[in-house]
Write a structure and sequence with these properties.
CATH topology of chain A: F1FO ATP Synthase
Number of strands of chain A: 0
Strand content of chain A: under 5%
Oligomer: heterodimer
Order of helices and strands of chain B: HHHHHHH
Helix content of chain B: 55-70%
Number of helices of chain A: 3
Distance between the termini of chain A: 11 Å
CATH superfamily of chain A: F1F0 ATP synthase subunit C
Largest sheet of chain B: none
Number of helices of chain B: 7
Shape of chain B: globular
Low-confidence stretches of chain B: 1-8
Strand content of chain B: under 5%
Mean pLDDT of chain B: 84
CATH class of chain A: Mainly Alpha
Largest interface: A-B, 13 and 17 residues
Number of strands of chain B: 0
Structural class of chain A: mainly alpha
CATH architecture of chain A: Up-down Bundle
Mean pLDDT of chain A: 86
Radius of gyration of chain B: 23 Å
Amino acid sequence: MVGYGLAAIGPGVGIGLIFAAYINGVARQPEAQSRLQTIAILGFALAEALAIIGIALAFVL
Amino acid sequence: MTIAGRTDLAEFHSPGPADFDLPAIVAGITKPMVLYVLAALVVFVFFYAASRRAAVVPGRLQFAGELAYNFVRNGIARDSIGSADYMRFVPYLTALFFLIVVNNYWGLVPLLQFPTFSHVGYAYGLALLTWLLYNGVGIAKHGFGGYLKLQSVPGGVKGPVLLLIVPLEFISNILVRPVTLALRLFANMFAGHLLLLLFTLGGTYLVFDSGNAAYIPVGVIAWVLAIAVGFLEVLVMFLQAYVFTLLTAQYVGGALADEH
């Protein structure tokens, strides 16, 4: 359990950075929101995959 | 979950993966199987009813159907696959998206309250379908060797670094993709439902079974948190269906792409 908590730090930071960049981009260019949104969701999914693998392993091991 | 030195408490069993192994209803038919078929029926009936009497001026139901269809068609398929040949995949993507959405929301419907994809087998099935689809269209377009080259040799890389890049690209594009696709959906549903279980059961235990009046407010707080997690789940369930469909479209688009 503690191990999974530690493993969730990395993806948490990553997701935070992704959305920070997305907010920045929309603030600078509001008309680019639709294109940025797809990329942001995609990046969020990819970063989240690491946390997901962690939780799967926490229940397997 | 017992407190040291307090043996008069009733034992609290924290929920775990075992709570997801429901007994069979009749003859090996389990609850997730029934829900899965039910979700397929719901999606089919909705779109059939919406498109049965297609009029130029849509009614309310037809308008809802068109809205749902357009969301997948323009928001997911066209942006990811490209406007040249995305129409072939729109039926599959639409069916996939709404099947996953309905199946996820079974986790919040009273009396059903079981997200189908918290059993990993269902997610594996859909990921296998997606894997066959994107590899299939890629091989059909580029030929077997050309497709392998497309998926494992990135453009603009030369020299000895290819020895490192090619196996990595091959593993990540062919082998890891379906696994992460399935596990992402499964683990989100599983973890979310487990959180709901934990907060509701924990609150019930603290209020009714702990035998200590001081724990009652804490149990009420746990119930409030369960409601909050439920709202979070509404968001997560939609988002996971969206991500699954979006990634399927991206993989198909990548398999169809010309040499980059």
